[in-house]
Design brief:
single chain; 348 residues; alpha+beta; two-stranded antiparallel sheet; 11 helices; elongated
Length: 348
Amino acid sequence: LALDPRADTRQIAEATLALRPGDIIFVSRAGRATKVVVVATAQRVNGTKLTVVGTSREVFQIQAGDFDTPPIRIGRAVLPEPYSPNSPKFIREAAQRVQRSKTNEHNRPVKRKNGTRHPIADDPDLRSRLTAAISADRIDSELAVMMQRIDKSVQSVSARFDELVLLMERRGYVSQWSLTDQGRILAKIFHELDLLVAEALSNGLFDGLNPAELASLMSTFVYEFRRAEDPPRPRIPKTLQQRWKSLTLLSKRIANDEASAGIARHRLPDPGLMEVSFDWTSGVELIDILNDDLTAGDFVRTMKQLIDLLRQVSLVAELPSTREVAQKATQAILRGVVAASHGSPVHL
């Protein structure tokens, strides 16, 4: 039985449609098989159009009608970046990558003589084999793209890690791939602003304060105004105004250092809850603290975060007096609705 030519044409069209940029195939040029890489695909009324680059930097376009047999992907090449298929530099680099690529040379197209049938035409399972081959090539192509993305992600993570290590070395937290005493303190702080908290500790910004003052100053690490409108003007206790200025300057220096190292700048501390935290820790009732800008839910959530950070400071602060004040501040905050939401007994 002769092979249905329409089926062969359909299989060629399906195989052409399955090709993706970066796929390497053989095409027939001037009577010989030429290795090329697909750099672009486009869908037209008469089928898929491929733009390919050969090893000699030739650029041409082919369609399904230019193939005698379904094109088979024989390899994969990572296309140059930035992606610019019309650029001479891009074309030159793509041609070099095709030359260097490892390909399956056994998949060279077999030239047919006029009037003869290819021996494979007698295979009763030809159609299913070709369909399976096309599916396998498509899966391989998708896997190659996924692996390329993973490689880029790994490289990005590795680069950021190196930049972070350099930052830690400059600020005295790491030395010769080992943590310093200051680095061991930082390793025990679990917070999005951990570096700023550690720096504030080492600079003594938390020392010599009473429980209300310490809670007020540390609220700047856990509170963040999130509404679309401009935040209200913060009210900073008079005894903390100089400490707040010092903390702001320290934060800006760290942010500049992070930017120089190629690391995203940290979120700046927010003084919006300093007065509220000071009053609550001092024993002021909730009804006298809440306002239009602060709901009970927001207040309780922020106080619980503040308690967590104060407890960490009570464990890592160098001065015993600072550790003791942090513990007292935690006990002072843990009352009323805060204690109730925290699962602690409420004393009436």
